[in-house]
Amino acid sequence: MSDNKKTSNTQPNNPLHGITLSTILERLVAEYGWEELGERVRIKCFITNPSLNSSLTFLRRTPWARDKVEKLYLKLIQK
To answer: According to CATH, what is the number of the domain 21-78?
Structure first.
């Protein structure tokens, strides 16, 4: 038996554990559409020529924006 085995449940209280940013954004766009998403989270990449790739690039580089998107996602899944 290897001592290097990691447990699969390393963050049991984190509802975002194991969910990619891409999955979060796709779910939000499917639920709200780009226009409403841009109203809920005032980020230019959601308002002007929105695309999944450009939004992911921005969110990965901008912690405050990613935090807002993750909070909106958490609200959505708690409904």
So the answer is: 1.10.720.30
Distance CA 3, CA 73 (A): 36
Return the residue matching tokens 């639920």: 31
CB 59 within 8 A of CB 50: no
More confident residue, 12 or 32: 32
- Cα–Cα distance measured from residue 45 to residue 27, given in angstroms and rounded to the nearest whole number: 16
Rounded distance between C-alpha atoms, residue 75 and residue 46, angstroms: 18
**Rounded to two decimals, what is the model's pTM?**
0.81
Is residue 62 left, alpha or beta, with left meaning phi > 0 and alpha meaning psi from -120 to 50? beta
Burial bucket for residue 58 (CB in 10 Å: 0-12, 13-18, 19+):
middle
